[in-house]
């Protein structure tokens, strides 16, 4: 479906119009809108999925493959990347150039392989990080151009556990392949 603005103006799709409106809404309003009816839920879901793919395309050429790996490996994206996706902050002066990826220890290798085939160079594996005393086992960074991916391996059987050990509610957000979570949307936004 398209909306025609004028003879000299461009044609905007419904997705374009929704994106303009959704970007102006606080996260809590998006959540409320998504529970009104199936159509609104689908529109908000498509908008958020588009935001995730748009953000990830800065890091990877094959974002669909990356999302499939997230789903299969049970990995989650958190940190500044989750904030930028959740709150549509790409128009701000600040831009997230790093990706914090949390994964179970036994599911790490397929992601390492994906990063390396995507042109990322691995750093040494770090075990002596200040956060390694809790649920974090190791942190390994991967670099490509001006982008950095931190692969954070959990000590226990939950990729989410380390996220909730941070002391800031701003960091208690994460992205899955098919959903977004914010523990404290009113305190984070």
Task: Write up what this structure looks like.
There is one protein chain. A hairpin with a 6-residue loop joins strand 1 and strand 2 (11-13). The longest helix has 19 residues, at 38-56. This protein is 37% helix and 24% strand. Helix 2 (27-34) crosses helix 3. It is built from 7 helices and 9 strands. The radius of gyration is 18 Å and the shape is globular. It has one domain (13-188): 2-Layer Sandwich (Beta Polymerase, domain 2). It has 189 residues and is of the alpha+beta class. The mean pLDDT is 80. It has a 7-stranded mixed sheet with strand order 5-6-7-4-3-8-9. A two-stranded antiparallel ribbon has the order 1-2.
**Helix/strand order:** EEHHHHEHEHEEEEEH
Q: How many domains in all?
A: 1
How helix-rich are the residues, as a percent range?
A: 25-40%
- The CATH topology assignment is Beta Polymerase, domain 2
The portion of residues forming beta strands comes to: 15-25%
């Amino acid at each position: 479906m398209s909306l025609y603005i004028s003879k000299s103006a461009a044609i905007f799709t419904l997705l374009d119009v929704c994106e303009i409106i959704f970007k102006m809404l606080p996260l809590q309003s998006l959540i409320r809108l998504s529970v009104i009816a199936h159509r609104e839920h689908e529109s908000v879901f498509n908008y958020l999925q588009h935001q995730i793919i748009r953000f990830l395309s800065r890091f990877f050429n094959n974002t669909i493959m990356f999302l499939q790996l997230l789903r299969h490996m049970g990995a989650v994206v958190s940190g500044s990347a989750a904030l930028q996706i959740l709150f549509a902050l790409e128009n701000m002066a600040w831009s997230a150039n790093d990706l914090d990826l949390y994964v179970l220890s036994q599911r790490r290798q397929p992601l390492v392989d994906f990063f390396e085939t995507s042109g990322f160079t691995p750093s040494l594996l770090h075990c002596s990080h200040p956060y390694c005393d809790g649920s974090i086992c190791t942190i390994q960074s991967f670099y490509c151009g001006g982008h950095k991916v931190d692969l954070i391996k959990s000590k226990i059987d939950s990729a989410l556990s380390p996220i909730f050990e941070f002391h800031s509610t701003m960091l208690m957000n994460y992205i899955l392949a098919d959903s977004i979570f914010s523990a404290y949307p009113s305190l984070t936004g």
